[in-house]
């Protein structure tokens, strides 16, 4: 009797722990409720290729970026200082290794704003940039990743 009682107790405990674990496992799926169509700001960091530390490119970014949500699709506009040194910004939207030029939204003085679709705001966005600084004989293509901060999303 005593044995079956403690068996019952421990199986109840087991069930409780299992339910708790399941609740936590499922939680991330609900962490990002669907954003209503509209315009938002979102912070981001440009990461050095394959690392979680800020890239040199990050220092040229104007933050936050503008996030446009339309029919549940994300479009991000980022603005860059010293734009004449950054002739190309390309993104690989779906991680298939194919990079496409970001759309040029506009320029102002030596800043430019470019836009691109983002499939998943929680994923690192593979990005390539071309840096050309003629007086330094600097002409390099670099790979970086853009990491958005979903928790920073605010109305535009
Ligand atoms: C006075 C201007 C600049 C100087 C002197 C400079 C110098 C350098 C040097 C010495 C490196 C490391 C060597 C290498 O990996 O090739 C580097 C890396 C890099 N630079 Fe520049 N750079 C300048 C401007 C820029 C600008 C405007 C960008 C904007 C996109 C940029 C993006 C990068 C990137 C992405 C790397 C790779 C490492 C990382 O992600 O931080 N640089 N730069």
Description:
This protein has 156 residues and is of the alpha+beta class. It has two domains: 1-31; 38-155, Immunoglobulin-like. Helix content is 19%, strand content 49%. The chain has one helix spanning 2-31; strands at residues 38-48, 61-70, 73-80, 88-92, 100-101, 103-108, 111-118, 125-133, 138-155. The protein has a nine-stranded antiparallel beta sheet, with no helix packed on it. A hairpin with a 4-residue loop joins strand 8 and strand 9 (138-155). It is elongated, with a radius of gyration of 22 Å. Protoporphyrin IX containing FE (HEM) binds at residues 48, 55-57, 60, 82, 85-86, 129, 131, 133, 136, 140, 142, 144. It is found in: Secreted, Cell wall. Keywords: Cell wall, Peptidoglycan-anchor, Secreted, Signal. This is Iron Transport-associated domain-containing protein. Its main location: secreted. Pfam families: NEAT.
Topology:
Layout: H1 2-31, E1 38-48, E2 61-70, E3 73-80, E4 88-92, E5 100-101, E6 103-108, E7 111-118, E8 125-133, E9 138-155
Antiparallel strand pairs: 1-2, 1-9, 2-3, 3-7, 4-5, 4-8, 6-7, 8-9
Bound molecules: protoporphyrin IX containing FE (HEM).
């Amino acid at each position: 009797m005593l044995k079956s009682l403690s068996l019952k107790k421990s199986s109840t405990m087991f069930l409780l722990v299992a339910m708790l674990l399941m609740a936590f496992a499922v939680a991330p799926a609900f962490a990002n409720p669907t954003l209503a169509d509209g315009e938002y700001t979102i912070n981001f960091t440009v990461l050095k290729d394959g690392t979680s530390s800020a890239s040199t490119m990050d220092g040229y970014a104007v933050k936050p970026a503008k996030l446009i949500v339309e029919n549940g699709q994300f479009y991000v506009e980022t603005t860059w200082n010293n734009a004449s040194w950054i002739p190309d910004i390309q993104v690989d939207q779906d991680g298939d290794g194919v990079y496409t030029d970001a759309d040029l939204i506009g320029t102002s003085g030596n800043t430019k704003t470019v836009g691109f679709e983002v499939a998943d705001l929680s994923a690192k966005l593979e990005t390539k940039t071309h840096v050309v600084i003629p007086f330094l004989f600097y002409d390099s293509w670099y790979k970086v990743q853009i990491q958005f901060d979903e928790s920073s999303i605010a109305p535009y």
